[in-house]
Specification:
With 967 residues, the protein is an alpha/beta fold. Helices cover 59% and strands 6% of the residues.
């Protein structure tokens, strides 16, 4: 146990002890419990007899051994006949035991009767014992149904497949706190199948299904919240690929993941990985042979610093977004900072020094001190801060048995917390806390801060030069701009700033003036940029940390000003959401991540969100989307990428947000109702959830813009009348409907950070009158028997975005079938032309505006909709002859395929593609400039004539020639 080793680690402070000699608590001790924990005191009051008996058997003055813990788990899972109880009784027994143990641990901690290491060790041993019990219990139940899982090795020898349960994070390091969740990863040995057979009443299934159900059973026993509460919240998000992936992974898949997909930040997570319980020695050795080289490099690994910097940046941004200054874990100088310092050293030097390849933070810290990577003062500061913060964390969590690291705002509990920890008052506790935070923050900032060095140019920011620059600025500003600037400095907002904020504003002003002059010298647009800059300053002055960001990034600030002048949309986004400024100043728009990178970025951010914190989840989804879209917009302004790449990036962002939203919504529904039954009769899984999201319109056609909404359709392959597996059971149809509603909540709900996306569901079967989600069979029937022609047109631009691969494959098959239905050219011409005319009449520019020389880039004749309709016409008219036309949902590749097949001349397809991309690029620029798509026709005359000529040539009639009264 870690408590044995930890005795060798010198402690800066000692824990107070108590004069408890009697097994039964005194009145004074009960008062201490009441002061420390509302939860534990209520347990005592409601179950006084049970608590007295428990304390008599396990006195507060004594520690618990692993054997005692295992014996307790066994005792509390037996029925009245001393036999292993049924599942409901087992779950109830484990929860009652947890309640008694928590009451005892909270009491010991409040009385100062237990050392930090001993407390975290006992908590971890209890978790280990519960996990091992849950695994064995569930395994035996599954074997009765399916037989044992087996696999055949390379030599043809059959073996029993085992599952290793990896404890990650605090549990992996034996550092579990009073209300920790437990981070687990399930790994089994190999593919194979169970040895069940019908003769003995079992049936064979593949090992993947068996291990998935084993994992689900473990989670159910420990995590499900019943009338008796829970044992441990189980978090599976650290497994390879995260939420939405298989619950259990086999060894060869893990090896491939580490080799090809493992990210630097995951090395931090796997550093603390530990096998819970006993597994076959050869299996254990194989696991260690995979994990060790992934975490530790043989050479000195300075790349860990870069990974740490990125991770820290994520945390800082999230804390800034939430303004969560009371978080003792994630705030500056908090527990996470200490762990990062220690883990970074371990990853960098662990390959060279095996003694650093340990899990415990305090033990690793001591080894770093012995190896002189930490000096004595830093070591003493860090370990003293760690002990204090962990003790404070326990005290906070003890209040209501909640997984939180936030200081209480209630004055009563502030007072009680101070008393419990031995302080005279709340102010004294805060003073000590702030000293420890500062002692941590200093070495942390020194270690991972990437120093920003201003580029050396001819202009310096000395006071004398600043006066000269101010005079220069005054000469280039218009009278209106000078008035706006003066109004800003004389405003009530500036006058009411705190002293610290005003100092920061004064300090940043020379950097801003220098950036404005630089922009004027290069582009002569300072008067365009200044009003937008003032709006941004008004938004950030009261949260003056952003002023510090600007002051510390003079080069990035110089790059920011041209963005403000080029795009009012970017300027308004930054002013509305100043938290986006950090990404902008770091100029992350220079590299637009691809879809796997985006997925990984969002996964890291979501790992910092507690599973039940829906408000924070919505915030992360929204700010991820806004940060990434803003980066694309900046790249677009710089004209660094073609329009196709820009739209691809915007579409990837939406797809990744939808994936994450679906995974979290599904997990939430499963927690509430259990798993629905798939149409094959088995419960669905995380990897095959029976639900998929289909994108139509711009999302389906890979042409999203900056303010595009998402046209979505939800499909499922769930038994609609089958009941879910949870205690609170609902029909499969209700599960799917509530999953769809939860998804809409995640995407559509307006928060302080805006919406993730506007969602339009009108393209689902029967439109607004239809069900929110339909089965694949119902969707197919509707498309073949009831859908209008325009709905088949819409299907051309439809594409599976995410979800169960079986559902997406079924959708693709249905789409191919429907698009390839036999149709005559004349029939398709009439239907497509009819729909185009209706759209033009309702959405195109008015005759008066056309007479005034205006042209709507999207809706008028010769606009982008004409081109889109030509692509849809080609697919509907010719797919029954050329099935490859159904492969693509985007216009560019449809035209490429039409040309390749020789349906239309290559030059015609290229002309249409060029016109399409030209109009798309202009639409993006107009959106960034916050201008209408109604433009001067003269600038687009040639493009418009080309599109109209091709429409007439290919459709056989010009729209303007059609008598709409006959349609």
């Amino acid at each position: 146990m870690s408590s044995v080793v930890s005795s060798a680690i010198p402690s800066v402070t000692s824990t107070p002890t108590s004069n408890v000699t009697n097994c039964q608590p005194t009145t004074e001790q009960l008062q201490v419990l009441q002061t420390a924990s509302e939860f534990a005191y209520q347990v005592w009051e409601r179950r006084t007899t049970s608590c007295r008996t428990f304390i008599r058997s396990y006195p507060l003055t004594q520690t618990l051994t692993r054997q005692q813990i295992d014996d307790l788990i066994q005792d509390y899972t037996l029925d009245e006949n001393y036999q292993l109880a049924v599942e409901t009784k087992v779950m109830s027994g484990l929860r009652h035991l947890r309640m008694l143990l928590m009451m005892r641990w909270i009491w010991q901690d409040a009385l100062g009767l237990i050392e930090l290491e001993q407390l975290t060790d006992e908590l971890s041993e209890f978790a280990d014992g519960c996990i091992v019990f849950a695994k064995n219990y569930t395994y035996q139940q599954l074997v009765l149904q399916y037989g044992q899982p087996t696999y055949v090795d390379a030599k043809g020898v059959q073996h029993i497949d085992d599952m290793a349960i990896m404890a990650m994070g605090k549990l992996g390091a034996h550092e579990l706190n009073l209300s920790s969740d437990i981070d687990l990863v399930f790994i089994h040995q190999a593919r194979g199948e169970t040895n069940g057979n019908k003769e003995n009443g079992t049936r064979s299934i593949d090992n993947k299904r068996f291990m998935t159900r084993l994992g689900q059973g473990i989670i159910k026993l420990l995590d499900n919240c019943t009338a008796d509460g829970f044992v441990f919240r189980v978090d599976m998000r650290l497994r390879p690929w995260g939420d939405g992936s298989d619950l259990a992974i086999h060894l060869s898949a893990l090896q491939k993941y580490f080799s090809h997909h493992g990210r630097a930040w995951e090395r931090f997570a796997w550093l603390k990985a530990r096998v819970v319980g006993q597994i076959n020695p050869s299996f254990y050795d194989e696991l260690q042979a995979l994990i060790k080289p992934f975490v530790f490099r043989y050479y000195v690994d300075y790349s860990a610093f870069s990974a740490l910097r990125e991770m820290k940046s994520l945390i800082q941004n999230q804390v800034a977004q939430r303004e969560d200054l009371d978080n003792i874990k994630l705030g500056a100088g908090g527990i996470r900072d200490i762990e990062f310092i220690v883990q970074a050293f371990q990853l960098i030097y662990g390959g060279r020094h095996p003694q650093l390849q340990i899990k415990s933070c305090l033990q690793a810290m001591y080894e770093l001190y012995k190896l002189e990577y930490l000096d004595q003062a830093t070591y003493e500061h860090l370990q003293a801060a760690y002990r204090f913060l962990r003790r404070l964390e326990h005290a906070i969590q003890a209040i209501n048995d909640q997984q939180t690291q936030r200081l209480p705002h209630d004055e009563k509990w502030q007072h009680n917390l101070a008393m419990t920890l031995g302080f005279e008052n709340w102010a004294a506790l805060l003073s000590t806390l702030n000293k420890h935070r500062e002692n941590v923050n200093v070495p942390f900032e020194r270690m991972v801060t990437e120093r920003k060095i201003p580029s050396q140019d001819k202009v310096t920011l000395e006071p004398s030069n600043f006066d000269t620059q101010m005079a220069q600025l005054d000469t280039v500003l218009s009278a209106e701009s000078r008035a706006q600037l003066q109004t800003f400095w004389q405003s009530k907002m500036v006058a009411s700033l705190s002293k610290e904020a005003r100092v920061r504003l004064d300090n940043v002003y020379p950097v801003i003036v220098h950036a404005l002059l630089t922009h004027q010298a290069q582009e002569q647009l300072v008067n365009t940029a200044l009003p937008r800059l003032i709006a941004l300053l008004e938004a950030i002055c009261r949260r003056s940390i952003y002023l510090v960001m600007i002051a510390e990034n003079p080069n990035a600030t110089a790059a920011l000003i041209p963005m403000l002048s080029a795009s009012p949309w970017i300027a308004h986004e930054l002013a509305r959401y100043p938290v986006l400024l950090d990404t902008f100043l770091q100029q992350r728009y220079r590299h637009l991540p691809d879809k796997p990178e985006l997925r990984d970025i969002l996964r890291q951010q979501l790992l910092r969100v507690e599973p039940n914190d829906e408000e924070e989840l919505l915030s992360v989804l929204r700010l991820f989307k806004k940060n990434q879209v803003l980066a694309v917009a900046a790249s677009d302004v710089l004209a660094e990428r073609p329009i196709m790449k820009v739209s691809d990036s915007l579409t990837y962002i939406a797809a990744v947000v939808l994936e994450a939203a679906l995974e979290r919504a599904f997990a939430e529904m499963v927690k509430r109702y259990g798993y629905p039954i798939a149409q094959d009769g088995d419960p669905v899984t995380e990897a095959d959830c029976g639900f998929a999201i289909i994108g139509y319109g711009k999302l389906g056609g890979l042409e999203l813009s900056y303010s595009s909404d998402l046209d979505l359709v939800f499909l499922h392959k769930i038994k609609e009348q089958g009941m879910t597996t949870g205690e609170t059971s609902v029909s499969g149809m209700k599960f799917a409907a509530r999953l769809a509603q939860k998804l809409m909540t995640y995407l559509n709900t307006q928060t302080r950070d805006g919406r993730a996306y506007e969602v339009d569901m009108r393209l689902r079967p029967s439109g607004n009158a239809g069900m929110m989600v339909v089965s694949c069979h119902a969707f197919e029937t509707y498309q073949l028997e009831k859908a209008w022609s325009w709905e088949h047109q819409a299907l051309v631009r439809a594409r599976a975005i995410c979800g169960d691969k079986r559902v997406t494959a079924r959708f693709c098959a249905i789409r191919r079938t429907v698009l390839a239905l036999p149709r005559t050219l004349e029939q398709v011409r009439i239907e497509v032309t009819s729909m185009r005319l209706k759209m033009q009449k309702h959405l195109g520019s008015s005759p008066r505006k056309q007479q005034d020389g205006k042209f709507h880039l999207k809706q008028d004749a010769g606009g982008i909709v004409d081109i889109e309709f030509l692509a849809q016409f080609a697919v509907l008219a010719y797919s029954h002859q050329y099935s490859s036309l159904t492969k693509w949902s985007d216009n560019v590749r449809i035209f490429e395929e039409v040309a390749t097949l020789g349906i239309w001349e290559a030059s015609v397809c290229q002309d249409l593609t060029d016109a399409y991309l030209r109009i798309r690029a202009a639409s993006h620029q107009l959106a960034l400039s916050e201008q209408s798509l109604l433009v001067d026709e003269a600038h687009w005359h040639d493009t418009r004539l080309l599109v109209q000529a091709q429409w007439h040539h290919l459709m056989g009639v010009a729209i303007d020639d059609i008598d709409d009264s006959k349609i």
